[in-house]
Amino acid sequence: MLRREVWTEVTKGQTAVRKLVIWKTNKAPVDASFPAFEVHWTDYSATRGTSLGREVRLAPTETLAMELGDAMSAENIKKGWAKVGG
Percent of the chain, pLDDT > 90? Predict the structure, then answer.
Protein backbone atom coordinates (compact mmCIF):
# COMPACT_ATOMS: atom_id res chain seq x y z
CA MET A 1 0.00 0.00 0.00
CA LEU A 2 1.40 3.35 -1.06
CA ARG A 3 -1.19 5.73 0.36
CA ARG A 4 -4.23 5.55 2.63
CA GLU A 5 -6.29 8.56 3.69
CA VAL A 6 -9.57 8.65 5.62
CA TRP A 7 -11.97 11.54 6.24
CA THR A 8 -15.13 11.69 8.37
CA GLU A 9 -18.06 14.07 8.66
CA VAL A 10 -20.91 13.93 11.18
CA THR A 11 -24.34 15.01 9.89
CA LYS A 12 -27.71 14.33 11.51
CA GLY A 13 -25.93 12.31 14.20
CA GLN A 14 -24.48 9.90 11.63
CA THR A 15 -20.81 9.61 10.69
CA ALA A 16 -19.99 9.52 6.98
CA VAL A 17 -16.63 8.14 5.87
CA ARG A 18 -14.59 8.69 2.72
CA LYS A 19 -11.42 6.75 2.08
CA LEU A 20 -8.69 6.78 -0.56
CA VAL A 21 -6.33 3.82 -0.97
CA ILE A 22 -3.56 3.51 -3.56
CA TRP A 23 -1.55 0.34 -3.94
CA LYS A 24 0.94 -1.35 -6.23
CA THR A 25 -0.35 -4.67 -7.52
CA ASN A 26 3.05 -6.28 -8.22
CA LYS A 27 1.36 -8.22 -11.03
CA ALA A 28 2.37 -6.09 -14.01
CA PRO A 29 5.85 -7.67 -14.40
CA VAL A 30 4.28 -11.14 -14.45
CA ASP A 31 1.42 -10.40 -16.86
CA ALA A 32 1.06 -7.15 -18.81
CA SER A 33 -2.75 -7.47 -18.79
CA PHE A 34 -2.77 -6.59 -15.06
CA PRO A 35 -2.56 -2.94 -13.98
CA ALA A 36 0.56 -1.84 -12.12
CA PHE A 37 -1.37 0.39 -9.66
CA GLU A 38 -4.93 0.66 -8.35
CA VAL A 39 -6.64 3.72 -6.90
CA HIS A 40 -9.70 2.94 -4.80
CA TRP A 41 -12.20 5.51 -3.49
CA THR A 42 -14.86 4.50 -0.93
CA ASP A 43 -17.74 6.76 0.13
CA TYR A 44 -20.02 5.61 2.97
CA SER A 45 -23.03 7.47 4.38
CA ALA A 46 -25.86 5.76 6.25
CA THR A 47 -28.26 8.63 5.47
CA ARG A 48 -28.12 8.20 1.67
CA GLY A 49 -30.29 5.87 -0.36
CA THR A 50 -27.18 4.15 -1.70
CA SER A 51 -25.08 4.08 1.44
CA LEU A 52 -21.86 2.69 -0.06
CA GLY A 53 -20.21 4.14 -3.15
CA ARG A 54 -17.00 2.84 -4.67
CA GLU A 55 -14.81 3.89 -7.56
CA VAL A 56 -11.72 2.07 -8.84
CA ARG A 57 -9.23 3.53 -11.28
CA LEU A 58 -6.23 1.79 -12.79
CA ALA A 59 -2.86 3.39 -13.52
CA PRO A 60 0.28 2.20 -15.33
CA THR A 61 2.65 4.35 -13.22
CA GLU A 62 2.91 5.46 -9.61
CA THR A 63 2.94 9.10 -10.68
CA LEU A 64 -0.37 8.74 -12.51
CA ALA A 65 -1.88 6.79 -9.58
CA MET A 66 -0.95 9.60 -7.17
CA GLU A 67 -2.38 12.22 -9.56
CA LEU A 68 -5.65 10.27 -9.77
CA GLY A 69 -5.75 10.07 -5.97
CA ASP A 70 -5.12 13.81 -5.65
CA ALA A 71 -7.92 14.54 -8.13
CA MET A 72 -10.38 12.24 -6.31
CA SER A 73 -9.57 13.89 -2.97
CA ALA A 74 -9.90 17.41 -4.38
CA GLU A 75 -13.22 16.56 -6.02
CA ASN A 76 -14.81 14.81 -3.03
CA ILE A 77 -13.38 16.42 0.11
CA LYS A 78 -14.93 19.81 0.79
CA LYS A 79 -15.62 21.92 3.87
CA GLY A 80 -16.73 19.95 6.93
CA TRP A 81 -14.65 16.81 6.35
CA ALA A 82 -12.00 16.02 8.97
CA LYS A 83 -8.94 13.93 8.13
CA VAL A 84 -8.50 10.94 10.44
CA GLY A 85 -4.97 10.15 11.63
CA GLY A 86 -1.82 11.76 10.37
Answer: 81
